[in-house]
């Protein structure tokens, strides 16, 4: 993006927190092109980022922009404990920035108009599709598509592994996901696809909207099931059986892609890890014992586990990675509170 093409009015809206998601991403792309921020993903710092944005705005306009309500961010306190205070708006803004920057990390192989993206990291990463739809790729997941696949009549991608989709609504152009034997058709919804070639079954789970899942039977005829929110389709590879089930809203454990709301009031990272373990039924380990002393005050409103982990680790200047059924958080940590 040409730096001179950005609108000063748009930058002012960004600083004042009045941008819609598309405008936020436009500003972040412009900012990244100027500062080569993709090289600093591990060290993303929200106060530094906003400060640089404001400095760039001053150079972009003749008059210095003064927001009516300046953004206030409490810095982390080193060596004693890092106390992070963040409202929902700040969390979501930080998340959008991080995931935009993080989309540069998967291996992208583009031949002619074909795009193939593999998540070689040990974290969940986000990729935005040509139509504005978003996909979160689990480690080792792969997505493929061509420019021609996003036509005036349809949108089609292929995926291997586990991925969560948020599809932009477009009734005139159905969205198709091909995954091994499965064909998923949607108009605009959010759902999770789990289709690893080495597993004996595949799963499609719906969060919002309506999804049709179909597979060919042994005679080559198509069989399908229609899924509504909180429903799941399971395809057994050996038998060819395709069934649909309800996802109980009352069960204590939820899947990692399901959004939840949590509030942490001055809680240690060790306590937060325990709450996430209980909620998602996963294992979370702190590689450095000093991380247990870091305290956070934050509100997560309808966020997925990957989003909560990204924001939480940023706030305590740590990183995380997925190892099988465990999540490892590593970083310098915080000193013992006196």
From TrEMBL:
Record-linked Gene3D superfamilies: 2.60.120.1440, 3.55.50.30
Segments passing through the bilayer: 80-101
Domain spans labelled FecR protein: 119-211
Name of one Pfam family that matches: FecR_C
Location of the Protein FecR C-terminal domain: 262-329
GO molecular function per UniProt: sigma factor antagonist activity
InterPro entries, alphabetized: FecR, FecR_C, Ferrdict_sens_TM
Key words of the record: Membrane, Transmembrane, Transmembrane helix
Keyword Transmembrane carried by entry: yes
Protein name: DUF4974 domain-containing protein
Organism: Larkinella punicea
């Amino acid at each position: 993006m040409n730096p001179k093409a950005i609108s000063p009015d748009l930058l002012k809206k960004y600083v004042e927190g009045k941008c819609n998601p598309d405008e936020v991403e436009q500003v972040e792309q412009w900012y990244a092109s100027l500062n080569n921020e993709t090289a600093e993903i591990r060290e993303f710092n929200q106060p530094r980022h906003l400060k640089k944005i404001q400095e760039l705005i001053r150079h972009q306009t003749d008059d210095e922009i003064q927001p009516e309500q300046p953004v206030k961010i409490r810095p982390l306190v080193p060596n004693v404990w890092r106390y992070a205070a963040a409202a929902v708006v700040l969390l979501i803004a930080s998340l959008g920035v991080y995931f935009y920057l993080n989309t540069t990390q998967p291996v992208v192989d583009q031949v002619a108009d074909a795009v193939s993206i593999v998540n070689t990291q040990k974290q969940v990463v986000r990729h935005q599709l040509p139509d504005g739809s978003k996909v979160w790729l689990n480690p080792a997941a792969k997505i493929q598509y061509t420019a021609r696949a996003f036509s005036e009549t349809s949108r089609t991608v292929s995926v291997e592994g586990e991925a969560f989709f948020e599809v932009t609504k477009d009734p005139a152009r159905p969205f198709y996901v091909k995954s091994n034997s499965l064909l998923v058709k949607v108009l605009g919804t959010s759902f999770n696809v789990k289709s690893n070639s080495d597993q004996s079954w595949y799963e499609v789970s719906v969060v919002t909207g309506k999804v049709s899942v179909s597979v060919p039977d042994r005679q080559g005829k198509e069989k399908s099931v229609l899924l509504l929110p909180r429903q799941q389709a399971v395809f057994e590879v050996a038998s060819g059986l395709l069934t649909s089930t309800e996802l109980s809203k009352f069960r204590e454990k939820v899947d990692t892609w399901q959004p939840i709301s949590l509030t942490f009031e001055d809680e240690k990272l060790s306590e937060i890890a325990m709450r996430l373990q209980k909620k998602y039924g996963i294992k979370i380990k702190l590689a450095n014992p000093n991380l247990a002393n870091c305290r956070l005050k934050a509100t997560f409103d309808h966020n997925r586990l990957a989003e909560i982990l990204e924001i939480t680790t940023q706030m305590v200047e740590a990183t995380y990675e997925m190892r099988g059924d465990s999540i490892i958080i590593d970083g310098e940590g915080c000193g013992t509170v006196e």
